[in-house]
Write a structure and sequence with these properties.
Length: about 190
């Protein structure tokens, strides 16, 4: 099977959808994700429904909820290639802990203070974040130059694979505005749950 992640304009999305409908393809499967330029609007439209969904889950259903999210998360991420999108790296600035700064600067053979001075600022919450967006370590092919020792915020993203998803509902809904996979995970989980 061949899986394709489509990130295109709304016009391209509709055009491809029509072509796929006209053409019967048995040996290939096209996984058409949300066009990135439509994601924020779709996520905003789903936001109230997503909040209501999480509100209706009882705390004693936490384990069941985690199992379902992890299953759907694995299914969705098995069908996409994040390198085709990298919207998180292009639009979000991860929080850096002191441990992150120490680890990354050691791997880069520079002092933590030099790393912080060159790449980071302190935001209004007193957290270290990148001075610039997109990520300065993102290359032109969407590969991360520090992937093996990236910040914990990056390795944990988008959190739909993390335990205790009920405690992460706000960040999960927020991430659905940035990550088409999170949006799809939420939509599929809601369909199954109902």
């Amino acid at each position: 099977m061949v899986y394709i992640l489509l990130l295109a304009t709304e016009k391209d999305f509709i055009s491809l959808k029509l072509k796929v409908k006209k053409r019967k393809v048995e040996s290939e499967k096209f996984e058409i994700m949300i066009p990135i330029n439509s994601l924020a609007t779709l996520a905003k439209n789903a936001e109230t429904n997503n909040k209501a969904f999480f509100k209706n889950i009882k705390p004693k259903q936490s384990h069941k909820t985690d199992e379902l999210f992890h299953k759907i998360n694995d299914e969705v991420f098995s069908k996409i290639n994040c390198l085709e999108c990298a919207n998180c790296c292009k639009t979000l600035g991860p929080r850096f802990s002191e441990r992150d700064i120490s680890r990354i600067s050691k791997k880069m053979n520079i002092k933590p203070s030099a790393f912080a001075s060159k790449y980071l600022i302190i935001d209004e919450d007193d957290d270290y974040i990148f001075k610039t967006i997109p990520c300065p370590f993102l290359d032109s092919e969407n590969y991360c130059a520090i992937y093996e020792y990236r910040p914990k915020a990056c390795s944990d993203y988008p959190h739909t694979q993390q335990p205790e998803i009920l405690k992460k509902q706000k960040i999960t809904i927020k991430n659905s505005f940035t990550c088409p996979a999170v949006f799809e995970v939420l939509e599929k989980v809601k369909q199954i749950w109902e």
